[in-house]
Amino acid sequence: MARRDWTRDELILAMNLYCQLSFGKLHYGTQEIVELANAINRTPSSVAMKLCNLASLDPAHQERGVKGLSSTSKGDRAIWQEFHNDWDSLSIESEALRENLNLDEDHEKSREELRKQTFAGATESTATVKVRRAQRFFRKSVLASFESKCCITGIDVPQLLIASHILPWGQYPEHRADPRNGLCLSRLHDAAFDQGLITFDEEFRLVLSLTLKEATTNEVLHSTFTRFQGKCITLPQRFRPPDEFLLLHRGTIFKGE
Question: What is d(CA 108, CA 133) in angstroms, rounded to the nearest whole number?
Fold first, then answer.
């Protein structure tokens, strides 16, 4: 294939995929990389190199002591910053591009669901599509960061995992698709976190509410909560939650020790 410059849409697609792959998968043989390469008429090696360029801009990658490639372009840096300035808009735009290239398994199902919503007007349907795209991007990015394991228990069954928002979706729209606002939790722990029954301290250690602390005779609660109390979660490969996000959760959602 002849060498050509990357378009903005291609860079958006590359950044989208970068967010949704673990560091160990930034390789030309990875299925998702091969699929994207085929869709945009590039070689898997070219796409893998672009993802490595983006990785070199990632503070989490730098903290691991990996310098990465030094061939980042102005476009790479621009798209990196564009995502970080507006996760919501770019998550929706990037997922729409993936749908147009038939790179997602569930977008046809989503379209069928929308067609069945005959009662909904055009504006409502459009809003529903955007929400679904943002949610899909957020889930994939958060699970990739935590290697698809609950950060408390290590449960690794995808059907039992939730990309849990630290700052509530409705109250903080600017962070609803921001991967830094996510924790990978089991469905049970997500419910507890959402209801303020658990939180995490400044060292990412699990803190239980008084309600859970008093449930000392329940073996299930002990095995799923009490035995993890005070232990640090497994931190994500990238998109580590800012201290202020967890501070807000402790101060406004957590129901106290």
Answer: 12
Answer yes or no: are the C-beta atoms of 54 and 14 closer than 8 Å. Answer: yes
Cα 162 to Cα 182: distance, rounded to the nearest angstrom = 9
Please say if the pLDDT value at position 146 is more than 70.
yes
Token output for 255: 């129901």
Whether 116 shows a pLDDT value over 70: the answer reads no
Residue among 167, 179, 97 nearest 137 (CA):
179
Question: CA neighbours within 13 Å on the CB side: how many for 252?
Answer: 11
Backbone angles phi, psi at 15, to 5 degrees: -65, -40
Q: Do 116 and 109 touch, CB atoms closer than 8 A?
A: no
- As given in the structure block, the two tokens for residue 68 are 């990465």
Cα separation of 37 and 50, whole Å? 11
Q: Which spans in 146-194 are helix H?
A: 187-194
- Could you tell me the pTM of the whole model? 0.88
CB 151 within 8 A of CB 183: yes
- Enumerate the H helices of the chain as residue ranges: 8-19, 31-39, 44-55, 59-63, 74-85, 87-100, 107-116, 122-145, 187-194, 210-213, 219-224, 243-252
Give the alpha-carbon dihedral of 122, 125, 131, 134, to 10 degrees. -80
**Contact residues for 95 (Cβ-Cβ < 8 A; gap 6+):** 16, 104, 133, 134, 136, 137
The neighbour count for residue 219, using CB atoms within 10 Å, is: 8
